[in-house]
Specification:
Blueprint lengths: L1 H7 L5 H4 L1 H21 L3 E2 L10 E9 L9 H18 L2 E3 L3 E4 H5 L10 E6 L2 E6 L4 H12 L4 E4 L5 E2 L24 E3 L6 E7 L3 E8 L5 E15 L2 E14 L6 E14 L7 E3 L3
Parallel strand pairs: 1-4, 8-14, 12-15
Antiparallel strand pairs: 2-11, 3-10, 4-9, 5-6, 7-9, 10-11, 12-13, 13-14
């Protein structure tokens, strides 16, 4: 636990103390990313097909308006506008063999000129308003779809803290993918012989999405959580869990072919959970 205590006492970066240095660092990283898009050897997905591919791999939906502490509900309403703009840049995209999906490359920089509104975003340990805030809900949904496929995640980030108590949470904690244009991207590569397609749409209450494929697979995936727990360490709250995945045959009684640990999560919690285990850091 001493090692964990050291891990929790992370040094505050100079760019976090001085806003000008922070924005300069962001600008430099964005330049590097744009250069990478031009110079790396990846073939990025860019072709859309209005017609749906014939087979569905996975479908999921997430609620648009959620109760998030005492935060301004207008930011949640604005988020819906942001989601619709971003989704229009992604829906119907094909990910053909050896192509890489890049969320930031497809969506671009969210700006007011493009119609984006102030929405809630998480930064430096707090929730605050930012232009285009809330579009991570799309990357979260897409990542969940991808986890149920043979696609290979090549770049993914998640929030370093948990700001709100669960309100009808369906997916395991830590199973999302945050994005921040453009150096915190969400990318996956299609190393299979199949072509995949992402479709997004909206109902009155939900963002809906599906992953489709041009040939039916004889196997599928089950993603689940283990070892979930809230901890109290040195008067601070933390949350931990493990995300696992099983690959199984659709036929032959659902025979399990493979079980793998996808990730271990450990993050600071900024609220007081109802139940927790107190641990001494000494």
């Amino acid at each position: 636990m001493k090692a964990k205590k050291v891990e929790l006492r992370k040094r505050i970066l100079l760019s976090q103390r001085h806003p000008i240095l922070y924005f300069l660092a962001v600008c430099i990283r964005r330049i590097y990313r744009k250069a990478g898009w031009l110079l790396d050897d990846k073939k990025y997905a860019a072709v859309k097909l209005a017609e749906k591919l014939p087979f569905r791999v996975k479908k999921h939906q997430s609620v648009l308006l959620k109760k998030l502490g005492e935060n301004n509900m207008q930011l949640q309403i604005n988020k819906v506008t942001n989601l619709k703009i971003a989704a229009s840049q992604i829906t119907s995209i094909l990910i053909r063999p050896q192509e890489t999906f890049s969320f930031c490359k497809l969506v671009g920089l969210p700006t007011a000129k493009k119609g984006y509104l102030p929405g809630m975003e998480l930064s430096f340990g707090e929730a605050r308003a930012g232009i285009g805030g809330g579009i991570c809900q799309i990357s979260n949904l897409i990542h969940w779809l991808v986890l149920h496929s043979p696609l290979t995640v090549t770049e993914r980030y998640h929030h370093s803290f948990d700001p709100f108590p669960d309100d009808g949470r369906v997916l395991p904690f830590g199973s999302g993918a945050t994005v921040f244009y453009n150096y915190r991207d969400y990318q996956f590569t299609n190393n299979t012989p199949y072509t995949f397609q992402i479709n997004l749409w909206f109902t009155h209450k939900c963002l809906e999405g599906e992953l489709r494929i041009d040939q039916e697979l004889d196997f599928a995936y089950h993603v689940f959580e283990k070892e979930h727990q809230f901890l109290k360490i040195d008067n601070q709250f933390f949350r931990k869990n493990e995300i696992w995945r099983e690959k199984f045959l659709k036929f032959q009684g659902g025979k399990i072919l493979e079980t793998e640990l996808l990730t271990k999560n450990f993050a600071r919690v900024t609220y007081t959970p109802d139940e927790y285990t107190e641990i001494s850091s000494d």
